[in-house]
Amino acid sequence: MCEGEKFDCKECTQRDKDIRDANGKRRWTVGGETVLGCPQKLITEEVAWQVELWGKYKRFGFPYAGGWGEQPARVFDVIDALDRTMNEIEHKRLEKARGNN
């Protein structure tokens, strides 16, 4: 199993391993942490849960019954943080596409 708690390297296809550099030649930095090889090593069970929660929210709406007032504060923290992150990524992508590096 990778250092991340949720990922089993044996489940990756060869294409995924090539993209993620499972052999450890490429250096990845995520959130200030650097790792050689597969960046999935940096993804903990907590991070995987947060990304899964956000993805389901985007597709299906709130994860708990009721409106926004009935959702746990932690859910809003995750949704807000990932929405901001995705907006920043999209903004950078658009700036790069426009040639405004």
What does it look like?
This protein has 101 residues and is mostly helical. It has 2 domains: 1-43, no CATH class; 44-101. 49% of the residues lie in helices and 8% in strands. It contains 3 helices and 2 strands. It has helices spanning 14-20, 45-60, 73-98; strands spanning 27-30, 33-36. Strands 1-2 form a two-stranded antiparallel sheet. Helix 2 (45-60) packs across helix 3. Residues 1-5 have low confidence and may be disordered.
Keywords:
single chain; 101 residues; mainly alpha; 2 domains; two-stranded antiparallel ribbon; 3 helices; 49% helix; globular; disordered N terminus
Chain-averaged pLDDT: 83
| Rg over C-alpha atoms, rounded to the nearest angstrom | 17 Å
Tally the beta strands: 2
**Biggest beta sheet attributes:** 2 strands, antiparallel
Relative helix content? 40-55%
Beta-strand percentage range? 5-15%
Give me the secondary-structure category. mainly alpha
Number of domains: 2
Q: Which regions are unreliable across 5 or more consecutive residues at pLDDT < 50?
A: 1-5
- C-alpha geometry: globular
Distance between the termini: 38 Å
Strand order of the largest sheet: 1-2
Number of helices: 3
Q: Strand-and-helix sequence, N→C?
A: HEEHH
